[in-house]
Amino acid sequence: MTEISPISVLETDKKRTDDPVTVMTFNLRFGLAKDGPYAWEHRKPLVSKILEDYPCDFIGFQEVNHFQAEFLIRSLRHYGHIGWYYKRLEWWQNNLILFDPSWECLGHRHFFLSRTPDLPSQLFGSIWPRQCIIGWFKKKNQYLLMANTHFDFASEVQQKSAGLLMDFLKYFPKGIPQIITGDFNTTPDSPAHHCFKSRGFDLVMEGESVTTFHNFTGKETGRHIDWILYRNGLSPVFEQVIQDAFNSLFPSDHYPVRAGFAWTT
């Protein structure tokens, strides 16, 4: 596990990047699921196609079995990656961040959403051990913090998980642009969302009628549970839910969500 070192934010570097930063959140649907025609072996070429058609600076993946992680790393071999994927338990689901090589990863931190974050563990009431990966990145003189997570199902657990994540963010310099991607298993206006919102995070496509979980049906009305949250000097320039299918087969039971951000500071 790599600790994130303190970074000075007072540098003056004329090589500041003004390029928009593009981010995706993508719940893959775990590969061990017995999904018949929607099984991972049928879907993985479609995942590659999505990633080819919709390039990003950062991609936050959830629900990734270790063999899916290895597939992603091979498929996007020019990308860097951070996250902890656990090979010894085949069913283990992971969160990964893949990032474009134009960004330098200065450090990263993996932790469990629990009272013992450095040990495989879970909050009381959580069905699964839930995790988060945080990366600290630099491009020219622009810094960005990105976190990727996957919340459990109970509202109280989600709210506590949001609080734990926010506690970790306190260790970083104030005012630095921050993005959180994830499957939050809840919709906007939930207690978990209010926890983020009260601390200055905005939500991509907040207030819109958005569906991100479709259970391989392709439906356009349902729950908005896959989020991209942002704060501190970022402004969306585009927002999209990717509903592409290939011969009626979808890459996942979740739609990927993608957004581009301009720097406002």
UniProtKB/TrEMBL annotation:
GO molecular function, one term: 3'-5'-RNA exonuclease activity
Domain of life of the native organism: Bacteria
Cited Gene3D superfamilies: Endonuclease/exonuclease/phosphatase (3.60.10.10)
InterPro entries: CCR4/nocturin_mRNA_transcr (IPR050410), Endo/exonu/phosph_ase_sf (IPR036691), Endo/exonuclease/phosphatase (IPR005135)
Residues of the signal peptide: none
UniProt keyword terms in alphabetical order: Endonuclease, Exonuclease, Hydrolase, Nuclease
Boundaries of every Endonuclease/exonuclease/phosphatase domain copy: 24-254
PANTHER family per record: CARBON CATABOLITE REPRESSOR PROTEIN 4, ENDONUCLEASE_EXONUCLEASE_PHOSPHATASE DOMAIN-CONTAINING PROTEIN
Record-given protein name: Endonuclease/exonuclease/phosphatase family protein
